[in-house]
Amino acid sequence: MNGCGIAALQGLEPANLENHFRVCALVPESAAVAGPIGGVMHELLERLHQDHKNLDRVLTLLSSQLDHFFAGRESNFDLKIELLEYLETYADLAHHPLEDLIYHAGMKRLSDENTHLLERLLGQHQRLTASTRKFRMSLENILHDGVMSRAELETQGREYVALQRLHLNLEEAEAFPLLDKALTEEDWKEIAAHQPRHDDPVFEKPDQLRFSSLFHYLEKAEEEEEAED
Q1: In sequence order, what are the residues at sequence separation of 6 or more whose Cβ sits closer than 8 angstroms to the Cβ of residue 26?
Q2: Cβ-based neighbour number of residue 89 at 10 Å
Q3: What are phi and psi of 12, to 5 degrees?
Q4: Pick the CATH number of 42-228 from 3.40.50.80, 1.10.3660.10, 3.30.360.10, 1.20.120.520
Q5: Element at 96 (helix H, strand E)
Q6: Which residues contact 174 (CB under 8 A, 6 or more apart)?
Q7: Measuring CA to CA, which residue among 57, 50, 48, 58 is closest to residue 98?
Q8: What are the backbone dihedrals phi and psi of residue 111, each rounded to the nearest 5 degrees, phi first?
């Protein structure tokens, strides 16, 4: 086994994650959301998978904006803040809570080894929530002429994107297939009865006033993709 598999990531510190991805090419843009091998998952997992595809688009756009900023090119701070507000508004308040319900149900059905994976993902949800808020506040601080070095902001941004991609990859490659096999129809009914009622404000019920810059860039990206086809 080489040092580029998912297992090799388990003990890495955040500061080493993005370099690991770059060397191993483990999680290139959009690779973390390829979907299940061998068929369709339960509808709630399919919904989460679609969320992951949307989150991947957001992370790709955020990463591109960070590349522009750190290279000294024109960069849209309003867009970067909107991207993080979206992650706070939907990922942290609806997407992750639904996953938490599913993981807690799965912990009653799976082996100790697989339960450890779910516990790890639950812990990552808490850390990602804190990291999203911290990075948004750092960007707002820079926007309002606060004192923070470019190197410090770059480290924070690169680690944040790397952690998000690692998290998506672990869920898609390991957790979702296990849960789809382990959970019963009764489990899914219980989860559905308690799932958060929170619409996606960008990809489901668009709030074009709050996320105007994000909508502009997503539409632009779609037009460029259609032109290439």
Answers
A1: 4, 5, 6, 9, 20, 169
A2: 18
A3: -70, 140
A4: 1.20.120.520
A5: helix 96-106
A6: 6, 117
A7: 48
A8: -70, 165
CA distances from 134 to 34, 56, 84, 147, 181 (A): 29, 20, 10, 15, 36
Mean pLDDT of the chain: 84
Spatial CA neighbour of 59 closest among 89, 26, 25, 32: 32
Q: Residue 33 — very low, low, confident or very high, per pLDDT cuts 50/70/90?
A: low
Q: At what angle do helices 185-194 and 96-106 cross, to 10 degrees?
A: 150
Kindly report, residue by residue over 167-215, the tens digit of the pLDDT: 999 999 999 999 999 999 999 999 999 999 889 999 999 998 999 999 9
| pLDDT for 18 beyond 90 | no
Whole-number Cα distances in Å, 140 to 22, 71, 117, 126: 28, 19, 34, 22
Question: Three-state DSSP class for 126?
Answer: helix
On whether the pTM is more than 0.85, the answer is: no
Give me the sign of the Cα torsion angle 38, 42, 43, 45. negative
What are the residue ranges spanned by the domains of the chain? 42-228
pLDDT of residue 190: 97
What is the DSSP annotation of 68-81? HHHTTS---HHHHH
